[in-house]
# Entry
Amino acid sequence: MDAIILQILNGLDKGSAYALIALGLTLIFGTLGVVNFAHGALFMIGAFVAVTLNKVLALGFVDENAEATSVGGFSFGGAQETLYVEHWFGEAAGGWISDWSVPLAILFAIPIMIAVGFVMERGLIKHFYKRPHADQILVTFGLAIVLQEIIKYFYGANPIPTAAPDALRGAFDLGALIGFDPGTIIYPYWRLVYFFFAAVIITGVFAFLQFTTFGMVVRAGMADRETVGLLGIDIDKRFTLMFGLAAAVAGLAGVMYVPIAPPNYHMGMDFLVLSFVVVVVGGMGSLPGAVLAGFLLGILESFASMREVIDLVPGINQVIIYLVAVVILLTRPRGLMGRKGVMED
Amino acid sequence: MGLLEVKDVGKRFGGLQALSDVNLSVAEGTVHAIIGPNGAGKSTLLNCLVGKLIPDSGSVSFDGQSVLGRKPHEINQMGISRVFQTPEIFGDLTVLENMMIPCFAARDGAFELNAWGSMMGDREVVEKAEAELEEMRMADKRHMHAAAMSRGDKRRLEIGMCLAQRPKLLLLDEPTAGMARADTNNTIDLLKEIQENRGITIAIIEHDMHVVFSLAQRITVLAQGTPLVEDTPENIKGHPKVREAYLGESSGH
Amino acid sequence: MAVTDNQPTYAPKAQSAARAPGLTKRDWSLMILVVALVALAPILLNPFPTDSSLAQFNAGYPDLMQRFVIFGIFAVGFNILFGLTGYLSFGHAAFLGAGSFAGVWMFKLLGMNVLFAIVASVAVAGVFALIVGYVSLRRSGIYFSILTLAFAQMSFALAYSVLTPITGGETGLQLSKSDPRIFGEQVAADGNLPVTTLFGLDMRDSLIVDAGAWEFVFNAGYYVCAVALIIAFYVSIRIFRSPFGMMLRAVKSNQQRLNYTGLNPKPYMLATFVISGMYAGLAGGLMVSMDPLAGAERMQWTASGEVVLMTILGGAGTLIGPVLGAGLIKYFENIFSKINKGVLETWFSVFPDGLSDVLVTIVYPFVGKGWHLTLGIMFMLVVIFLPGGLVQGVQKAATVFRRDRNAPPVEGPAAERRAQAEDK
# Structure
């Protein structure tokens, strides 16, 4: 029992990332009808916003005013470096800021990602609405390459470890808290944070679509674009905003993922392929489907990595997600929760 | 016994009974129209005939053989050709190539792995396709890109492609939908000519009364998924039930 | 020179009745052009004297030319699927990888004759493509792309882990002195591993001709690959011009109509997928014939993406496009990755200091390790502005050039696609 719970928990963080990326993918597909292969790159950009902030906060200057202390003829500290952020905000607040750089990056990531999304949609994607899906895949695939190479140019090819805040580092005994033997379910704090973060974002997106007029129009547009257009509503403008929103969701997923796995330039592509599978399993254009499939596949993957399972079916952990995708695509063409008539061919 | 026999066909989509107890017999050599208001089940019926949908109950037989459970291309090979509401042609290909495909299919069947021969060197097929185009008076357009033609020409090509297969039954799904008056009249003339010259059996689904009454010898009126009445055009025109169910609504046309 | 149309040219009616040509005159001239280019490549690709500073732009050495030709075959095969039917496979590298493994196993089990490897790689890739295609072709459009992608990723993951006994896993599959090699020697006379041959002709053998300041290398391995490309290209033209090829274009254009014309698209698609997979297998077999080493990373989806890039860049649906695309990408990959900051500084040293620094800073991200950035940008530009690839670009330019001579309008695949989109 505790082993099962542990596997479910282990699947949650990856599942959360899949769900968040897939949510944006399917949102873009549902609203704009575009298959966006560059969506993984948005996730990556988000991650690198966090990396950048972390690096910026680590910038310092050599304090000229500090007296060089001399002990026994040896000179110390003449080149002592002070962080700008500590200089500006005082040592305590500054230290806190650089410690919490990853969560703080969210504040920067939101406007940056929305802007990136806008530029992408207005500058490129817009021109591909009427082109075949194959062309959309190709041009966004090209864009994904360009974005990842730009990141590679500035940040290099190696993963960049960036730590979570001190308070959230390490793990705790979740099992003991919920009544199992101590030491059976040890779970890192940050993964729990990530899961709750994802839950909040997902709830937020759904609430936004459900309870605002804007969301209502968008949902109506997803169901029947033409009719909404006939009502004299400028649906395109709203769809552009949706693209920004989807970009922001993917970006935030990336920001918070940084402490779980050090980001590198090809993380976007790695997640993209899996997220596409998630979207297809959930049903193209279905938001709840994307979330459900994201968590389901994350957890499934985690179960497939159990020693007992691997001993039974070698290599299953490597292919389980794809295998599920193949089976779902062949037996339930609409995916788990896809609507009739949405991209069935 | 008609060429096409539809017996007690029913089809349900979820909670919607799209067709129920449809009986229809299309006699050989006639033009039979199926009319009815929107949502009467005309398209569902048509899709059941060509194998795109499988009815829940009843039987459909063509030329004495059941079509149920066969795939569209198999049903086509039995001798049913279908003309679509919006012309379905091979837009990327030239007009001649468009015409060669049915000629090829008529000779070689559903699948022929001839990856070595030359299509344009296949004299038999090329000559047959040229002759068919001549017949449709489209020979001058044969090197044109099919997608670049006018809608009327596309329709003409599509009908020509269907006829090139020498079908026993030609199914037309609202062939003049969305057409201007002049194009509609051209299409009517074309179909009349085909009927007179070839004596082919035609089943036509149509919304436009003008087209129906200019062409049909028998008319079946479909309403709410079930046939209301079947008769000659003259009798249909005066039929009170039909006026009520259908003509009353569309008298504004 | 517009030798690159994707439409057959029609002889006037009377003539077409008189003769039954397999290939049109234009096809033959294209064929002859390809044969000439491929045969003379060691000379044509070495235009700069060996000692000149421009010699770094030469591409006429065996290793690189082999890559041109092998990837050309891969792209020609991919184009038969994507160019004719419009089905975008994102998993073709899996067949190339499977072919490579099959090839190396032939070297290990049977002997060092490349014929063993080539035959086995084509056969294995064909069978593998039959299985993957049978399942993937049950869906079309983007779902087909994702299914092929899923299969390729599964193959890659398995080849990397569980299948290590067959694939060599992380280290790749290599020859060893203890391999059985029933029809050959386990260890060469010099005590090293034996080398790949074609009936005794060493694939590494080269005829080096010094012609004044130039040096030309005619490599046996290259010419084996070249013959394979010529055959592969000829087969591809035949397919394009055959009834089968026309049916494939019909599949791309309108499957519905094809169905209602009594034709079954499924077997056509499956046959195409298998043929295209066999081309990939051939490329894989040739790769290991040149260098008997196969790794799982050849199956990764980025490798599949590469052949997509080549085909689109050159011109999908055209005959020569994929070959050009493969050649260009491999050539520039080679050149660009050689350029470093030092080289740039030498180039721009003719400009004043400040300007040269600026130029170096601007250009540097796009060369050397930044080659993929340039490739990505090039690819995007082509997809946006020239969906018919470079071939369409050449045709367009030719049309503009000949406008006053009543040239026919450009009828590349893109133009068709657009016309069709407007139609719908």
